[in-house]
Amino acid sequence: MADTFLDAQELVLNMGPQHPSTHGVLRVILKLDGEKVLGTECVIGYLHRGVEKIAEHRTYAQFAPYVDRMDYISAVSNGLGYCLAVEKLLNAEAPPRARAVRVILTELNRIASHLLWLGTHALDIGAITPLFYTFREREEILAIFENYCGARLTTHAFRIGGLQYETYSGFEEQVKRFCDTFPAHVDEYETLLTGNPIWRDRLIGVGLLTAEQCKDYGVTGPVLRAAGVAWDLRKAQPYSGYEQYEFEVPTRSGGDTYDRYLVRIEEMRQSVRIIRQAVERIPEGAIMAKGMKVIKPPVGEAYVSIEAPKGELGYFIVSDGSIHPYRVRVRPPSFLNLQALEVMAKGSLVADVVAIIGTIDIVLGEVDR
Amino acid sequence: MSEQQPSKAAPKPAAVMESQPWAGELPENLRTQFSEDVPETSQYAGQPYVVCKPDAAVAVLRYLKEREQFDALVDITAVDYPSREARFELIYIVYSHARNQRLRVKTSIGAASRPRTLTAVFTGANWLEREVYDMFGIVFDGHPGLHRILLPEEWTGFPLRKDSSILGMDQAWVKDNLGIESGQ
Amino acid sequence: MPEWLRRFLLIDLIQGMLVTFRTQHPKYINTEQYPEERPRVAERYRGAPRLNINPENGETLCIACDLCAIACPENLIVVGSVRNPETRRKELTTFTYDLSRCMFCGLCEDACPVDALELTQDFELASFTREGQIWDRQMLEEGPRPSPYR
Ligand code: SF4
Ligand code: SF4
Q1: What is the CATH number of domain C49-142?
Q2: N or C, which end of chain B has less CB nearby within 10 Å?
Q3: Residue A291 contacts residue A134 (beta carbons within 8 Å)
Q4: Where are the domains of chain C?
Q5: Is the pTM of this model over 0.90?
């Protein structure tokens, strides 16, 4: 009698769209049996701006600022992917100096993105302190962006064919100074979190996702690597000169939230390694490829993807030979990663849903585009 | 391409994608396996793609997954060509971790045709197909829950079709909701 | 050290607290005191637009070539010009810049052949009306006048 009384009702609970831990406007419909999650359904699209439609009404160069506004946490990566895709259509390549600067800025952006993720993820779980420290370091990166291109978030740092801005005087020093101080700060975060019993209890074994499930759902990025697949596009299909730099692809085998945390922490260290190597030898020379005044690719199509902080960010561009792209399709990593929430959250507790949403590292601007 | 010279006199030939044939074991296998269901295996800008008949698309992708190690679904999207007879081009992108290779599978479908869903092969196709439906109005047969994903449920029209204009959508919305003429 | 002893001695807590207390020193204050102290933004900061004038004769540098308006993805610049019958050159009459739609991407600035249009370091752009966001030529040449705090 008591038994039936307890699980007589399936409760449907709305989480979001205005909820602090959904990192934007994500609405998750939770089906609950007591504390247990029976199923989830995501309602997305609150931030849909029709970026792909806008692209068809802009020239190739004009569309570049819009891609910054998809994943606004890592605008530089978005810009790099778009520029590489158009360059592929044009059969052009940025000069070596531009490529090196691109790598430095993109890796700094990866660190900034992971820092924001770490701060907010920890905040979701109840650790307030790391947020202040991660934002302190993120500020240094944003200052570099601001000095370089004049904007902090929506940077529009790269142009098709290379760079618009030459590096400012003191750029190398500022980046080096950041590289020197930053690893100690990562140790600080680890002191605060890695061994912390509450942190471990909340994360270990939560939100499991196996490698098979990852591939089935098209999940990429740190989530895939935490499931034991050492797949990183920077290594698998190097672009923008990543083959010149030495770095490791951190992996873990557990596929739970804690492993994803460790993978991202290690990725920040590896990014510092890449930046160090790149900033030591920025080649001299031009920063813009020749013949980029009018961007008019021949008829064709290309899919180019990069390893964005969140996973594989792809651009599929169809050109009809005019100055406007015929179709731009963005393959957002967050969109596909978020889809796996339904398997990750199934059977977990309500409180863990917050941890799981945090660990996927979504940006709703990119999910909804 | 040819339109670089603004020659008014001669009508310029309709520009086509200059793709090269794609040779190798995989395209051979695909052609022997599917014969006329896969009429074209080519590459453009170093990226291979396969054109297949609409009915064979799911079978080709299943074959690629189970026999040729293309184990990860990257993307599903479509392109609208209103002037063509088969209006939409449906594009599946798959990736093989073992081969470190990406492959596009393309198929042309008419406005009224209903392609089979890929969700039976890749679970991740669910949202991607919903997005294609949302943006282009392509109905996938057998999809477990095909409804709009990014746009609100009551939206009319399919925005990424070439015949739906941004301005038109704006004017219609303003007229319906505010009862005035849009100044755009 | 075994896990239980670590937990018993609160090692992780103490280590964490050490990190926190190490940053208590006033020299680690990172908070900006805006608006009492306006922060210094970078030299290349992309903020309020300005239409530069020639400092020698006070004439505008703009040659009314319309390139900025063409480059802008948001189509928010409108350049008005008349052709001077004597010099056969275009002369700028009006210049409107709709700041409310601008995304400060800098494409207009890059397109300008004579560096007339420039995004400056001013970042206080708020106004009380929508119309206040549409800047005319005079406003663009003089720059914004942010009212000082207090
Ligand atoms: S900054 Fe960008 S959006 Fe603003 S006016 Fe210039 S080109 Fe247009
Ligand atoms: S591009 Fe420069 S010179 Fe030309 S109209 Fe614009 S502001 Fe004037």
Answers
A1: 3.30.70.3270
A2: C
A3: no
A4: 1-30, 49-142
A5: no
